[in-house]
Amino acid sequence: MQETLMQYMPGPHRRIPMMLGRMRSFIARRVRDNAASLQPGVPRDFIDCFLQHMEKEKSNPSSEFTLENLELTTLNLFFAGTETVSSTLRYGFLMLMKYPHVQEKVHEEIDQVIGRLPQDTDVYPLLSSVLHDPSVFKHPNAFDPMNFVDESGRFKRNDAFVPFSSGKRLCLGEGLARMELFLFLCTILQNL
Fold it and tell me: For binding heme, which residues are annotated in this chain's numbering (predicted)?
């Protein structure tokens, strides 16, 4: 009932169905283009991955991997992952322009907390300074596995422990390295 009432009310909301239709048409074209140039085993994006799963499950009548679900999921990803961020940024910039005193305060805090580095400055994270921080580790200069165990003897994650670095410089092989270390160490100790 609400949809039928809304279509008779004046206002910019009347453009919403038309805009959604355009978005769905655009996504349907992208799906067709991707399907026409699909190379199995070499997915370029989400649509390719979904199309490959559709192909794998084409004999399953209850599969959720359908063209309609692909279009709707892609539309949801666009609104959830793209439109929300751009809308929030637009609103944030609007508020900062409307309230310049807030903008100035935020700018001062950024300069104070982050500071400025001259262009082309090389920055090297000193992981040893983090790993030996007495405010984070009880015995920072001694081998103490209890730094990573809580009172009940369970593993306790510590965000200050960054042997594989962090941020953009994070070691891509961290998962593999952890697995290898675990398997080798456990196998050797198990066979002593």
Answer: 171
Per-position DSSP letters for 115-137, written without gaps between them? ----TT------HHHHHT-TTT-
In a domain, 121, yes or no: no
Q: How far apart are CA 15 and CA 22, in angstroms?
A: 11
**Which pLDDT tens digit goes with each residue over 104-141?**
999 899 888 888 888 998 887 777 777 888 888 888 88
Q: What residues are designated binding site? A: 171
Together in a domain, 37 and 63 = yes
For the annotated binding site for heme, the residues are 171
Residue 130: CB atoms within 10 A of its CB come to 17
Encode burial over 45-59: b for 16+ CB neighbours within 10 A, e otherwise.
eebbebbbebeeeee
> Do 19 and 96 lie in a common domain?
yes
